[in-house]
Amino acid sequence: MPFQLTDDQLLTRDSVREFAEAEIAPIAAEIDKNHRPPLESIPKLAEMGLLGMIIPEEYGGTGMDTVSYVIAIEELSRVCATHGVLAEAHSSLCTWPIVNYGNAEQKQKYLPDLANGNAIGAFGLTEPNAGSDAGSTSTTAVRDGDEFVLNGQKIFITNGGFAKTFVIIARSTDAPGAKGLSAFIVERDTAGFQVLEPEQKMGIRGSSTTPLAFSDCRIPAANLLGNQGEGFKIAMQILDGGRTGIAAQALGIAQGAFEAACKYAKERVQFGKPLAALQAIQWMIADMAVDIEAGRALVYQAADTEDRHEPHSQASAMAKLFCGEMATRVTGKAIQIHGGVGYTEAYPVERMYRDAKITEIYEGTSEIQRLVISRNYLR
Ligand code: CAA
Fold first, then answer.
1. Which of 233, 371, 373 to mutate to test the pocket of ligand 1 (most atoms within 8 A of CB)?
2. C-alpha–C-alpha distance, residues 165 and 113, integer Å
């Protein structure tokens, strides 16, 4: 059955597209070139309701359904993947666990500021020796009276350079592997917590990606999110939603590159006619369109499955796997259609190609998505 968007979802697409083209597209190339986090966009995103998308209205959010949320991420990423992941990591990786696992006090304390842009959120799972193998997390959180004391290091933390609220996964019990992990809320200005120098990356260069260091960092025991020992399950559930968000980011990048390729193919004249009149180009455009529509179906299907409160690990892994690889294919073809100029900074497709690659890696590599998907068939 074809996926039918509601009037509200279509309105979300129109309004986010208009906002993204007016406010974000003009700075997309510059923040990429300068590796500059677009801090000036944060109040604008907040005003548009794009930082409280999955926060209930009673805490100042817009309480959107998941399909609307992924449409918003898709539209931001269509013009700038950095903005897409800023909003995605903030929402899926930080606000989601507080909304779903926070107690009344935690929600009241953290959600309003996350919704209105006073605080940007980040999520700390990955460590130098715990990447795909998230269960081997070694950062510790030791209970000491009314506090937990954190020690260890996290890496590749999206929004790290400017986030104020961090959801951190750490080992807090003696239980082996994944069972010993718990989730905590850590505030940026806590003594013993340090945000280190950002990475210099191939793509999404405006996105701030930093290591975090914890050295006898004391946080209130009240900042435990959910129960002790639930941290791995919480992290996996965060990623079940987050992977659909990254699939939407990949979809948006591909859509942006596709539109740029169509435009160029109609304008550029060779052999006495526009490129668009050449069958070699027409076939590439057709293949790109099919790829994008297949990816869109998987993304909306995964989001709709989450909206129906059904298990969605499999659907989100499929959407992320397909869209990550699809975005790399589509942006590569977009460069090919542009020819030599596509390889230069004069056109946006080289940025989109660089941005697309990370969607095959973060929030679980394509290999991890294949593992998640195949397990469902082979157990
Ligand atoms: N929901 C709920 N529970 C889940 C779950 C899910 N989706 N997936 C697993 N679990 C539970 C299992 O049921 C199991 O529970 P029991 O022991 O009670 O049976 C427990 O968690 C352990 O599960 P597994 O045995 O499957 O664990 P594993 O060690 O084999 O790991 C994995 C599974 C899929 C490989 C997982 O480690 C994984 O997803 N790795 C990739 C990590 C990742 O995606 N990192 C991204 C970092 S965040 C990021 O990138 C952010 C950014 O910058 C934008």
1. 233
2. 9
The minimum-distance atom of ligand 1 relative to the CA of 178 is 22
Q: What is the pTM of this model?
A: 0.98
pLDDT tens figures, 7-66: 999 999 999 999 999 999 999 999 999 999 999 999 999 999 999 999 999 999 999 999
Looking at residue 341, its amino acid is V
Which residues have a catalytic role annotated? 363
Per-residue pLDDT at 24 = 98
CA distance 74 to 88: 10
Query: What span, in angstroms and rounded, lies between the C-alpha atoms of 88 and 151?
Result: 27
Output the CA 206–ligand 1 centroid distance in Å: 28
CA of 312 to the centre of ligand 1 (A): 13
pLDDT at 1: 47
Q: Domains along the chain?
A: 7-120 (1.10.540.10), 122-229 (2.40.110.10), 233-378 (1.20.140.10)
